[in-house]
Amino acid sequence: MIKKVLLGMMFCILFIVGCGKKEKVENINITYVKAPLNIPSILEKNMNMFDKEFEKDNIKVNFYELTTGPEQTNALAAGELDFLHALGGTSAIIAASNGVDLKITNIYSRSPKGFMLLTKNSDINSAADLVGKKVAGPKGTILHQVLVGYLTKNGYKENDVEFINMKLPDAMAALETGNVDAALLAGPVALKAIKNGANVITDGEGLTQGLIVTAVSGKFLKGNLDLVKRFVSTNEKAVNFIGTNFDETIDIVAKDVGLTKDQVMELYPLYDFNTKITPEDIKDLEDTQEFLIQNGMQKNKVNIQELIVK
C-alpha cells in the first residue's frame, strides 16, 4: 500500500515538473515597419542583425510587414507576433486599454516634426480653412493625433472636418488626385508630396513628441526575459551603428527606401532614435492618454508606468 502511495506521489511530482517545463522558443515574430523613416529597422533587416543574434539558439526570426497600429496589436493579441517593433504610442495605449497584453520595452523614435498635415489647396492655411474639408490619414495613429490636436488647439473638433481613414500611400494618392483637401503624411511620402507642390499646414511640434515605441507580448516577456533583453540590446546596436557608420547607414537606407542620399539627409534630422525611456517620454504618453480619452478615442484608463518593462 505504502509503495503504491509513493509511486503515486512520484507520478504527481513528475507530472507537475513536466507541465512546468519551459517551452523552447523556435521562432521570434517581429513587425518590419520601415516607414516613415525607421532607420534602425532598415539596418537590422538588411544586416541580418536579429538573425545573427538569435541563430546561436537555433531561433528563426520572422518579419511581418504590418504597418498600422490596429493590424499590429490585433496580431499580437492573437499570438501571431511577439514584438511590435515601431508601434505608435497612441496605438500602444489604445490597445492596452482594450485589454491587449503588451509591454513597452523601449522608445523606438521621437519625431514631432516628422508627422505632417499637408495640402495642395492654396486656400487652406489654417485650422479654420479645414472646416468642412476632406482630410485623409491613418486612424488611431500619431498622425491622427496631430490632426485632432491641431483642430482642438484652434477651437475646433474632429467632426468639423470629414476625416477619411487611409494608409499613407492611399492618402498621398488621394491628395495628388484632388480627392481630398488635405492629407496626414510622414517620411518619404511627405517629402514626395512637398516636392510635388504640397504645403505643410502644421506638423506635430507643440502637439506631440511623436513617440514610436517597441512593444512585446506580455506572455512572451513572462517566459523569455533574457530574449527580450537581447532584442532590445540588438536594437541599441543598430542605433549605435548609425553614429559610428553614418555614411554606410545613409547608403543602405537610400537604397532600401528608394530615395537619394540627399533626400534621406533631408529627413534624417527629424528623428531621434535614442532608445532610453525618459521621464519626458512617460509624461508625453500620459498626456497622450488624456488626449485620447478627452476625444473619445479611448475609454478605459491604464497605468502608463505599469506598461513599461522595468
Question: If you had to describe this structure to a student in words, what would you say it looks like?
Answer:
There is one protein chain. This protein is of the alpha/beta class and 310 residues long. It has 15 helices and ten strands. The protein is 48% helix and 18% strand. The strands form three sheets. It has a five-stranded mixed β-sheet with strand order 7-6-8-5-9, with helices on both faces. Strands 3-10-4 form a three-stranded antiparallel β-sheet. The radius of gyration is 22 Å and the shape is globular.
Rg result = 22 Å
Uncertain spans = 5-20
What is the strand content? Answer: 15-25%
What is the percent of helical residues? 40-55%
User: How many beta-strand runs?
Assistant: 10
What is the typical, i.e. mean, pLDDT?
92
Listing every helix as H and every strand as E from the N terminus to the C terminus, the arrangement reads HEHHEHEHEEHEHEHEHEEHHHHHH
What is the terminal separation in angstroms?
51 Å
In short:
The protein has 310 residues and is an alpha/beta fold.
Task: Set down the secondary structure blueprint.
Blueprint: H1 2-19, E1 27-31, H2 39-46, H3 49-54, E2 60-64, H4 69-77, E3 83-88, H5 89-97, E4 102-110, E5 115-119, H6 127-130, E6 134-137, H7 142-153, E7 162-165, H8 168-177, E8 182-186, H9 187-195, E9 199-203, E10 211-217, H10 218-223, H11 225-244, H12 246-257, H13 261-267, H14 279-294, H15 304-307
Parallel strand pairs: 1-2, 6-7, 6-8
Antiparallel strand pairs: 3-10, 4-10, 5-8, 5-9
Helix pairs in contact: 2-11, 2-12, 4-5, 5-14, 11-12, 12-13
